[in-house]
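Exercise 7.
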Amino acid sequence: MADINSRIEGAKQEVATLKAEIEKVRSEKNDKSMSAVASSKGPLREIRGPPNNVKCRRTLKGHFGKVYAMHWSGDSQDLVSASQDGKLIIWNGVTTNKLHAIPLRSSWVMTCAFEQSKGNLVACGGLDNICSVYNVKQQPQQSRARELAAHDGYISCCRFLDESQILTASGDSTCIHWDIESGEVLNTFSDHKGDVMSLSTCPTNKNLFVSGSTDSTVKIWDIKSGKCVQTHVGHESDINSVAFFPDGNAFGTGSDDSTCRLFDMRCYGEVNKFAHEKILCGITSVAFSRSGRLLFAGYDDFNCYGWDTLGNGKNYAFQLPTPHDNRVSCLGVSPNGNALCTGSWDTVLKIW
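Solution. The predicted structure, written as tokens, is:
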């Protein structure tokens, strides 16, 4: 027994030594800031900010409870929103018309998703531990939900891979890859040590996705192998949201430690940190502009800020003018890059 304990202790010390060596190599390579590298090739083009160019163009009213999640469709016309009123509403973002209102079995919904290729399917999940998939092109009486049940905790996030497959993240510390038609679990990803709060699929490689957790780590997963291929550390509190950079080589995160961060998979590390001395609240959601120059973040203090990913990270590029009257719970940039939608606990969604 004593021999086993000594071997365990020796293994722990070896791990700590290896971690220290890895950190030393990382810090040696991290010799310049993002703003210094970006400005070395000449002055950066200024970001156009409000009040002239960023205005609230549409207000979507119809929910009677807190809006918890939203997601754009692939055509950048429609979007789906999920609310504590027990409804999933599909909107036309141009006309503000409600196209569908789907009553949910459980009103404790936390996430929703639009299938991007054809736009026939939407999904949602929450405290019922079930991911429900609906076909919005069928008649309401025919559109029975496909229920995917295997998680032992709440569903915090879901994203379609295509019309036949979906990924879910859960409070049981796992992510699951599903076959929608059969309801079969294709793979379970279970390296996180805390609730998985968010996931994002890679726009350039459908075999990769990123997940953020309350264990303060972000992990990159290979869907084919079912294994974690990278683990990124740096945040000091729960990570609530993750979003892939448009080129698929990097990703952004938002955390309860009041910071957003930009990680690059190629250098296996953090390349920028976005924080302001006056911002003391947590971040609920993050999304990149189509070019990746801006990182939008929704905050608990009712605000939404845009950060320059090539800047020094200490000053936000701009703030949306009085976006909401309560916590900004979700946001998303349309696939064509023309609009930003924010959703809030004030029951309203706004398109900018």
